[in-house]
Backbone:
C-alpha cells in the first residue's frame, strides 16, 4: 500500500462560484477535496492578491493548504481538476480569470518528470510562460519560487518545506522576493477551516 505523503497546494479564485464570493469558494473547495479523499492538515489564511498578469481581471483570493494522501501525483492532479470543474472552472485562457484554481505545488521531495525538465520549465521567461503549458506534470511547480501569491500563504503552513532542487525553504524563497511583491499579498482573514 502506498505511503501517505504531504501535498502542498495553492488555491485561488477571482470570480467566485455558485457557492458565493471567492473566499467562500476557497473554503468550499477545501471541503470538496476532503470528500475526495485528500485529508486537510493545515490551511493558511486567505489573502487578497493583485490579479496576475496585472489588469487581466479582478483581484484574487488566494490560500495554500497542506493535504495528506497516498494518491499518486497524477491522481492528486486529477482530483484537483475534478474539484475545479465542480466549481465551474473552464480552461479557456491561460492565466485568465477563474472561479477556482487549484495548483499542485509539491509532494514531499518528488521531482517530476526529472530534474532537467523541471529546471528547463523553471527557467522559462515570462513571455514564454504565458504562451506555453507543459504536457506533463512538473513538480515542484516550476514558478513556485517567483510567486508571492503562493509563497506568502505557503509560509503560514509549510515555511520549512525545502524545494528538492533549489535547496531553499519556502521562507527563504519568500524572503528573496521583492518587498513590494510580498506587501501586495494582504490577509483577508484568519486561517481558513
Residues:
Amino acid at each position: 500500500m502506498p505511503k501517505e505523503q504531504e501535498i502542498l497546494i495553492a488555491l485561488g479564485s477571482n470570480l467566485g462560484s455558485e457557492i458565493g464570493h471567492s473566499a467562500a469558494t476557497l473554503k468550499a473547495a477545501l471541503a470538496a477535496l476532503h470528500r475526495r479523499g485528500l485529508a486537510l492538515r493545515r490551511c493558511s489564511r486567505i489573502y487578497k492578491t493583485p490579479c496576475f498578469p496585472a489588469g487581466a481581471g479582478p483581484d484574487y483570493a488566494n490560500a495554500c493548504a497542506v493535504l495528506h494522501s497516498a494518491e499518486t501525483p497524477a491522481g492528486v492532479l486529477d482530483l484537483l481538476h475534478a474539484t475545479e470543474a465542480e466549481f465551474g472552472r473552464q480552461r479557456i485562457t491561460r492565466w485568465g480569470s477563474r472561479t477556482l484554481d487549484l495548483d499542485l505545488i509539491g509532494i514531499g521531495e518528488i521531482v517530476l518528470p526529472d530534474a532537467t525538465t523541471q529546471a528547463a520549465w523553471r527557467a522559462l521567461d515570462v513571455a514564454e510562460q504565458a504562451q506555453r503549458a507543459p504536457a506533463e506534470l512538473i513538480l515542484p511547480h516550476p514558478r513556485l519560487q517567483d510567486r508571492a501569491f503562493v509563497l506568502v500563504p505557503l509560509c503560514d503552513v509549510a515555511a520549512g518545506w525545502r524545494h528538492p532542487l533549489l535547496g531553499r525553504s519556502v521562507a527563504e524563497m519568500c524572503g528573496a522576493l521583492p518587498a513590494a511583491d510580498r506587501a501586495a499579498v494582504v490577509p483577508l482573514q484568519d486561517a481558513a477551516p
